[in-house]
Every structure is written in C-alpha cells, then in structure tokens.
Design goal:
With 218 residues, the protein is mostly helical. The protein folds into two domains: 90 residues; 81 residues. Helix content is 93%, strand content 0%. The longest helix has 109 residues.
Amino acid sequence: MSLDTQFVTLLSMIAMGISFGAAFDTYNRFLKRAKRALWIVFINDVLFWCMQALLIFFVLFKANAGEWRFYIVLALLCGYSAYQALFKGMYKKLLEGAIHLVLETVHFFVRLGDMLLLKPVKGIIMLLISIALFFLNLVIKLVKGLFMLAMMILKALLSIVRVLCWPVIRLAVFVWRIMPAPIRKPFEKFFSKLEGIIASMKNNIIVFYDRWINRSSE
C-alpha cells in the first residue's frame, strides 16, 4: 500500500468516524428509546450497526481496496472523538433547526392545502347539501299540500254523493226492513264482510295520513 493510499485511507476513516457520530446522534434523535418497545429498539439497533459497518467497509474498499490495518480503528476512534469534542453541539443545533424547518414547511403546506382546497370543497359541499335540503323540503310541502287538497276534494265528493244517494238509501232501508229474514241473512253476511274490509281500509288510510303529517311536521 502506497503512502498516498494510506493517507487517503486515514482521512477517509477519520471522516467516517465523524460521520458515524453524526449518524448515531441522528438515529437516537428519531428513535426515542424511552418511548419504544424493547424489541423495536433491538431490531433498529441491529439494522443501524449493520448499515454503518457496510458503509465503513464500502468507503474502505474505495480507499484501499478493503485492506484492513490497525491504524484504521484508531482513525475511526479519532474521528468519533473529534466529533464528540468539536462538532456534536453544533451538529445537534443544525439537526434541530433542520427538523424544525421541515416541520414548519410541512405545516405551511398543510395549512395552504386546507385553505386552498379543503375549505372551498367543504364550502361547496355544504352549499350543495343546503340547496338539496331546501328543494327537498319544498317538494315535501308541495306534496303535503296536494295531498290535503285531494283529501278535501274527496270529502266534498263524498258529501255530495251522500246527499244525492240519501233517497236511494232510505228506500233501500225500507225495502230491507220489510224483506223476509231467510232472504236477508246471506246479504247480512256479505255486508258484514264488506263493512270489515271498508273499516280496515279506512284505518290504514288514517294511519298513513297521520304518519305523513307527523313526518312532514318534523
């Protein structure tokens, strides 16, 4: 190994020691060990150390084709010590500043998206819902009015029919009273069933009308 190669290797390993210190502080900043389960911390530690070992070996391979010397360990320790003594405080401040900047940028774009996209879309949706509810309420009131008008017309028609049919009914009652009992019994059964059917239909109409009025009033 030539002197130039050794010098490049030495500088590379010092730089990797500094890089390792910065990476270790960054890793601890984002991991937050106290808030993580032990098995998650263990898996992350194994992955971190494996990644750092591969990175150091890759740089060593580029510097001197992967030849290992004792001074490489010393260079790594020197780089790590230099980081701890000279760069750690400054790097942590830069790291916190970068994190704060990224979070503020993300919050800015989130607020911007909320102001430019979510709020207008929400306003349009609320407007469409209000318009739909207005027309629905209008249709319900219109249908209710038509239904009440139809009921009034039906009552008026029934009153007219009752007045017109009154002589016929009185004549039918007279004929019914003078009719012999054996002839009257089959008709009584028929009219009794017909009366039950009409009463059931009347009750169903009343129940439907009451439900419709109550639902419309809500």
